[in-house]
Amino acid sequence: MKKIIRLNNHSEIEVGLTGFPDRQTIMLPIAKKSVYDQEAENLKLWGVDPELGKHFVQGLADTFQVLYFDYEGHLFQHPNPENLTPEHIVDDFLLIADEMNIEYFSYYGYSWLALAGLQLAIRSNRLESLVMGGFPPYEGPYQEMLVVTNKTHTQSLRNQSEVVTQPEGSENPNETDWDNMTVTIDPLVTKQFVTLYQSLATFDDRSIQHKLHLPRLAFAGEKDTIVYGENFGNVTVDIVGLLKNNRCKLEDLGWDVEILKGSDMNHTKAMQPTSVLPLIKPWFMQHLKTGNGS
User: How far apart are CA 285 and CA 294, in angstroms?
Assistant: First the structure.
């Protein structure tokens, strides 16, 4: 079943619901729409599954009910530059669940959509379990991401007429030259992520852990460390380092923590269905009663 839902800022998003109605529901806001032909080939060069959303949905819908939509893609098409705050995101997610008649659900998000899941968990009582990929739930890099998004927005304002390109002389997508990368995303798009991280500038994820009374998993690829050059503020966003450094603390707090192994397991690789599904599907089956057929 698919439905067009009007969100809180009056934009419309397509939402799907599939799988087993008598089993517990997993919300997937990461379900990007499939792309084909040359666009798909370009994504493959960067290690991105051009049918990422489809493969995630199919990979979970044979065991659970899956509530899915492409929230990031929606924001690129319908930017919300002044109001993309945790409160707004949580309101959107709960509105979507309400419109699809889903009261309680689990959640999987990656990168900034992982931190959105953490906000959802502490701002509502409707989550049954939480999986955060590519963003640590303890001592997260909020300040670093504010610097990066500010710099990205500044560049997008300056380079509106250009196209995002891979710098010459760097044919390997895994060797991204952050100093020479040209940013030409719509400034309205980049501004909304500045708004998000500004609204989280004083957020202390250490102080909210006592509010989490549900099964929860955090994971990252073992090479998920991005060193940004001068154009992006000379900051390092060390996702896996933060997760490793706080692993014992997180486990004491009740988190399951996993590091995806592999010499190429960077931020992009660790978000692909072939990397993620073998981890999160058995985890959901273990922690959700209906996941194991009971």
Answer: 10
Element (H, E) at 75: helix 71-77
Kindly report, residue by residue over 210-225, the tens digit of the pLDDT: 999 999 999 999 999 9
Q: What is the DSSP letter of 30?
A: B
Measuring CA to CA, which residue among 86, 85, 84, 103 is closest to residue 94?
Answer: 103
Amino acid at 132: M
Calpha distance 57→291 (Å, rounded): 15
Distance of alpha carbon 65 from alpha carbon 53, whole angstroms:
15
Angle between helices 86-99 and 187-199 (to 10 degrees): 100
Helix orientation angle between 273-287 and 52-61, rounded to the nearest 10 degrees: 30
Tell me if residue 194 falls in helix, strand or coil. Answer: helix
Number of H helices, E strands in the chain: 10, 10
Distance CA 24, CA 236 (A): 38
Confidence label for 37 from pLDDT (cuts 50, 70 and 90): confident
* Helices 187-199/142-158 angle, 10° precision: 160
CATH of domain 2-140+204-226+238-292: 3.40.50.1820
Residues 116, 89 contacting (CB under 8 angstroms): yes
Cα-based torsion angle of the residue sequence 25, 206, 235, 161 in order, rounded to the nearest 10 degrees: 40
| Contact criterion met (CB below 8 Å) for 13 and 5 | yes
Q: Residues 142, 143, 145, 149: what is their CA dihedral angle, to the nearest 10 degrees?
A: 130
Sort strands 25-28 and 225-227 into parallel, antiparallel or unpaired: unpaired
pLDDT 10s digits, 89-123: 999 999 999 999 999 999 999 999 999 999 999 99
Tokens at 292, concatenated: 């194991």
Cα distances from 189 to residues 160, 192, 195, in angstroms, run 12, 6, 10
State which H helix or E strand residue 76 sits in: helix 71-77
